[in-house]
Amino acid sequence: METRVYSKAAVAGLVLAISGIQAAPEEAIPARIEFNRDVRPILSDKCYTCHGPGKQMGTIRFDREEVAKHELSGGRHAIVPGDPGKSLMVQRITATGPGVRMPLNGEPLSEREVAVIKKWIEQGAVWQKHWSFIPPLRPELAKVSDAKWPRNGIDNFVLARLDREGLKPAPQADRATLLRRVSFDLTGLPPAPAELDAFIADKSANTYEKVVDRLLASPRYGERMAFTWLEAARYADTSGYQSDGERFMWRWRDWVINAFNQNL
To answer: Within this chain, do residues 185 and 167 fall inside the same structural domain, yes or no?
Structure first.
């Protein structure tokens, strides 16, 4: 009996503790909605199953602009740029009736996701190509509080973000730590003692750059970079659990490694 009393007390305390935890506030909605950054992820996660490349229920497809904005039966449009109220898409993601609210069999969009879609349509429903088809452009360097801190253009953007968050950069790492970090980053291996001694003893201005060049020229670089790609493709030398026979996928594995090492 005493154990049961303690158990109930523990449960009650846990409930009170959980109820006192406030939910984390949702991320603020940007002033200007960008399709690739803000809208495409929502469509991909919540809409493509029924209105994407594989299936187009109701002749609606949200992965292609010309189809997403084309006229539907009865003169309706899923997306009416500048007018979310007339956009069938907004009507369906905000509906509450069964069989009407979209996604039909999935979790409804969050309040933030709905607000992002509405704001995007209000701002003209501007579409963007997938990022992989957009030529990269060199942006202007971000303005920072300490112009002497950046060593390259990337540092400007790092420091600018730290400035916005009211944070200070971490102190300069010692040379042993720098070598260890860059070695793991580029080859996945720690530096050898002799390499560490040589790096510390080298007092030239471009010591770090020379180390980076050496690591990029190492065969281990291609192996390190290829690992993530091979993992994503679920690469294995054998067939798997039940029929664990040998395969000849190693040819593709070696090609990926060599592609990185040859900078293809």
So the answer is: no
Which of 1-10, 24-33, 230-239 shows the highest mean pLDDT? 230-239
Answer yes or no: are the C-beta atoms of 205 and 217 closer than 8 Å: no
**Contact call for residues 33 and 119 (beta carbons, < 8 A):** yes
- pLDDT, tens digit, 9 for 90 and up, residues 48-103: 999 999 999 989 999 999 999 999 988 999 999 999 999 999 999 999 887 889 99
Query: Is 188 contained in some domain?
Result: yes
Contacts of 126 (CB under 8 A, 6+ apart): 35, 81, 120
Quote the pTM value: 0.57
CB within 8 Å of 90: residues ≥ 6 apart: 84, 114, 117, 118, 121
Judging by beta carbons within 10 Å of its beta carbon (0-12, 13-18, 19+), is residue 197 exposed, middle or buried?
exposed
Provide the domain limits for residue 195.
Answer: 175-261
- 186 and 257, same domain (yes or no): yes
